[in-house]
Specification:
Blueprint lengths: L37 H10 L6 H11 L4 E4 L6 H15 L13 E4 L3 H14 L7 E4 L5 H9 L5 E4 L1 H9 L10 E4 L2 H6 L3 H9 L8 E6 L4 H10 L4 E4 L10 E7 L5 H11 L6 E4 L3 H12 L5 E4 L5 H12 L5 E4 L1 H4 L9 E4 L6 H8 L9 E7 L7 H8 L4 E3 L55
Parallel strand pairs: 1-6, 1-7, 2-4, 2-5, 3-4, 5-6, 8-13, 8-14, 9-11, 9-12, 10-11, 12-13
Helix pairs in contact: 2-3, 3-4, 6-8, 14-15
């Protein structure tokens, strides 16, 4: 299975070991210049990468020196490696005693989504392959007992967690945070949006005081609210940010197609039917009902696609993402909530079927393509309902978006459905064990479950 982290670390070193001659490498910081511990450097060499990404170049000198950092960074820029390398350097240079109780991590990483937590764990294991450092992920929607067994089975150095499940383990004293030396808060802006900050505050109170730990905070934007949180949770933070014109991935071509709202599905279907270069496509909608309808309409016309929304249960969600990585279907339709956890290489196109409500969400969406220097394309549909957001997006990313009318052939009639619509796709969550079943609306209030119902003729 490819590890998306590999695509974030930097440019590959030349095969013969010689210094890179490409002009684009000029001014980049090689990992070898950072004097990293040998096991960590060996892992980076094994992965075949030599240069820091911009956010890594900003964060690593301060992170390795043990400073508190608040960084502006998008998913896909290498921020995960930035904080993991900072932590690994500290732990390898100052080894921990072997006589440590299970469930007492030295570092805690909090992230808003299960997918991001799982990805952080994968990246940590890739970086720590030549060390004895152990990383575990704990998150909701998965087997509680299995995660508990892993935590109790031995020493753990890094725990990556979603807030709710972490508090469950802490309340049961399965995880003890009093010895944590590092706190990492990833996607702080998303934490705010999703209402997780009260839970994070409860978690922070279980940690050592802020002057006795190191804290790293990352956010897509360093808004005043995020800065206020940073000042509460860390003394004298260093604020770092990639330049605004680097926020939007430079290897992505941006195109806006202007059309009436009634023509959007017609244009989408014809794009997929007429553009074979659209090999792996991520389509974003703003609402769950929109994305569900798109999945049904596309699949019933022979387009191999799946749905990913916040209502898809965890097992189904992970299976869909693995199938998408493996190329078992062509189109993934998603909402913004689900899209934050999509870390799939080689997505050729992102389609904004609906323009997002916020400029930051546009950047998050198009960041799913054009990763690791590969070319990518972002196509956005502008209709009478959503075009007002375009000037805000252009101001945020620092350049104008190309806007034009769709070609005539993209208005070709859409064929009638020829395939049976897909099943629900798992959009309903699994019924919790022990919860009551939903009443059958066709049965009367006083009807009995024993089956004393009137049979229809012929049954």
């Amino acid at each position: 299975m490819p590890i998306p982290f590999l695509k974030k670390l930097g440019r590959k070193a030349p095969a013969n070991g010689a210094a890179a001659e490409e002009p684009s490498d000029a001014g980049k910081i090689p990992f070898r210049d950072l004097d990293l511990p040998a096991p960590l450097m060996q892992a980076i060499d094994d992965l075949g990468f030599a240069y820091c990404t911009p956010i890594q170049a900003e964060v690593l000198p301060h992170g390795i020196a043990g400073r508190n950092v608040a960084g502006q960074a998008q998913t896909g820029t290498g921020k995960t490696a930035a904080f993991l390398i900072s932590i690994f350097v500290r732990f390898l240079r100052e080894p921990r005693s072997d006589k440590v109780q299970p469930g007492t991590p030295r570092a805690l990483v909090i992230a808003p989504t299960r997918e991001l937590v799982i990805q952080i764990e994968r990246d940590a294991r890739a970086l720590g392959r030549h060390t004895s450092l152990r990383t575990l992920a704990v998150y909701g929607g998965a087997d509680f007992a299995k995660q508990e067994k892993a935590l109790r089975s031995g020493r753990v150095d890094i725990v990556a967690a979603t807030p709710g499940r972490l508090l469950d383990f802490a309340a049961r004293r399965i995880i003890d945070l009093r010895q944590a030396e590092y706190l990492v808060i990833d996607e702080a802006d998303r934490m705010l949006d999703m209402g997780f900050i009260p839970d994070v505050r409860r978690i922070v109170r279980r940690l050592p005081p802020k002057d006795r730990r190191r804290t790293l905070l990352f956010s897509a934007t360093l808004s005043e609210d995020v800065k206020r949180l940073a000042s509460q949770w860390m003394p004298d933070p260093i604020y770092l940010a990639v330049e605004p014109d680097n926020i939007a991935v430079e290897t992505v071509d941006h195109l806006v197609l202007a059309m009436a709202a009634r023509d959007k599905f017609k244009v989408l279907f014809n794009l997929l039917a007429q553009r074979p270069e659209m090999e792996r496509v991520l389509v974003f909608g703003n609402r769950r009902d929109t994305t569900k309808r798109l999945e049904t309409q596309l699949a019933s016309r022979g387009v191999s696609c799946r749905l990913l929304s916040g209502m898809v249960d965890q097992k189904k969600r992970m299976r869909i993402l693995e199938d998408f990585r493996a190329g078992q279907f062509r189109v993934l339709v998603a909402t913004d909530v689900a899209g934050r956890g999509i870390h799939v290489d080689d997505i050729t196109h992102v389609v904004n079927y609906d323009f997002p409500y916020e400029p930051e969400d546009y950047v998050h969406r198009i960041g799913r393509t054009g990763r690791a220097g590969a070319a990518g394309k972002a196509v956005s549909f502008a209709c009478e309902n959503e075009s007002f957001i375009i000037p805000e997006i252009e101001a945020f990313i620092g350049f104008p978006l190309e806007c034009r009318q769709p070609e005539k052939e993209l208005y070709a009639p859409v064929p009638r459905p020829t395939h049976r619509p897909p099943p629900s796709g798992g959009e309903e969550k699994e019924r919790p064990r022990g919860s009551p079943r939903r009443r059958n609306p066709r049965r009367g209030r006083g009807s009995r479950s024993s089956g004393n119902r009137r049979r229809s003729p012929g049954r």
